[in-house]
Amino acid sequence: MLVLLAGIFVVHIATVIMLFVSTIANVWLASSTADASVGLWKNCTNVSCSDSLSYASEGALKTVQAFMILSIIFCVIALLVFVFQLFTMEKGNRFFLSGATTLVCWLCILVGVSIYTSRYANHDGTLYHHGYSYILAWICFCFSFIIGVVYLVLRKK
């Protein structure tokens, strides 16, 4: 049981770190021909980054930014709740609050990345492909679902 709890804790910390990296890094779309990338916050080339995203004023991008930030917040809250429940909860109880908070994080990732996929990932032409930030966000989506379900099933022994 201790090994399972430690494993879930490590995967949860890894998910928090990957969520931070995927939200902060500006490589949601990467150029196939030049050293350029597009992220949630900036447009970067091999020389410098600029705040001039061509679609920065669109509400969809602001929604993606908001949901990715919310997913980080809920993931960190779920981790803190898990640690709190680990030391204060009675034996035999389940980690319902941790699981529910992690599934809210999962839902925020789902909404944010799905909106980005439908609006921006199918970039005009074939000059861009998915960057590592975009792929990390989908990996966090999978991990947060698995962690949330395991928290809901897990009992403290």
Automatic annotation (TrEMBL):
It comes from the Eukaryota. Pfam families: PMP22_Claudin. It is a multi-pass membrane protein. Its main location: membrane. It is found in: Membrane. The chain crosses the membrane at residues 7-29, 66-88, 95-115, 135-154. InterPro entries: EMP_1 (IPR003932), PMP-22/EMP/MP20-like (IPR050579), PMP22/EMP/MP20/Claudin (IPR004031), PMP22_EMP_MP20 (IPR004032). Keywords: Glycoprotein, Membrane, Transmembrane, Transmembrane helix. GO terms for cellular component: plasma membrane. Belongs to the PMP-22/EMP/MP20 family. This is Epithelial membrane protein 1. It comes from Gorilla gorilla gorilla (Western lowland gorilla). The gene is EMP1.
